[in-house]
Amino acid sequence: MKQLNQIMPALPEELQKEKKCPICGKVYRQKYLKMYNKTIYVPDCNCVERKEQERQNRIQRIKFLKKKLKNASFPYDTLGKRLKTRTCENIEAAKEYIKNFKPRTRQGLYFVGPVGNAKTTLAVCIGKELIRKGYSVKFIVFSQAIRLLQSTYGNKNPLDFMEQIKELAKFDLLIFDDFGREAYKDRTLTDVADFVNYLYTNMNNVVITSNPEMVEKIKQIPDFNAMFDRFFQMTKRKNFVKTSYRRCNEKE
Predict the structure, then answer these.
(1) Per-domain boundaries in the chain
(2) 73-248 fold
(3) Which residues have CB under 8 Å from 110's CB, separation 6+?
């Protein structure tokens, strides 16, 4: 029986009993196996094999998608949320951005508004939709990005400063959350200036979220505006004026 199964590995016995392909309806032809003194039904099509291959390909696509979503490092509280369920502000701008997205075009969005009005969630939804379209995305709180770069000065990070910048710049989209909350000292200002300058020169696409008070804080830092002028040239500012995300998503 083992040898018989090797002859017809793609046609289970329950399908042989049907005597026709359950997909295209083509009648199976009879084949007598003299060695086993048995008649079997052989398909003249490859529908069963093709359907199984499609199933395997679908499984692989799902695994690949899950891996890319995991590598994006989205916040835990945004898992499962999709753009199609959003009803908050600037949703149309998000859809338009996804529709016209092209890597290395230095085009981005800058979401500014009070705490709790879906800036981060909308940014994550943009990232998820782009991942589903085959692009690579990285989500990171901006202060964490700075600490990651500065970790290259010690022994914990195997990469040097510029190598770490290049690793981040490999992504088609970088999402920087809570921009402006970080503390700036002379060394940090220099590091961030080098980081932003590289992203600008490399034509990276970024989506940034920030609060109005953080924007005002940044403006008070000497020479900060000139340094970050390139950062803001890479984005279109979209304001969020509502104070509560729940008020614009009451159904959820």
Answers:
(1) 1-71, 73-248
(2) Rossmann fold (3.40.50)
(3) 207, 208, 210, 232, 235, 236, 237, 238
What is the rounded CA–CA span in Å between residue 236 and residue 217?
20
Measure the CA–CA gap between 43 and 27, rounded to whole angstroms.
Answer: 7
Q: Which residues pair with 31 in a beta bridge?
A: 40
Do 29 and 40 contact (CB within 8 A), yes or no?
no
Sign, Cα dihedral of 164, 132, 119, 108: positive
Query: pTM of the predicted model, to two decimals?
Result: 0.76
pLDDT tens for residues 13-70? 555 556 788 888 888 888 888 888 888 888 888 888 888 888 888 888 888 888 888 8
Cα separation, 153 vs 147, in Å, equals 10
- Residue bearing tokens 């696409």: 205
- Show Cβ contacts of residue 21 under 8 Å, excluding neighbours closer than 6 positions: 15, 28, 43, 45, 47, 48
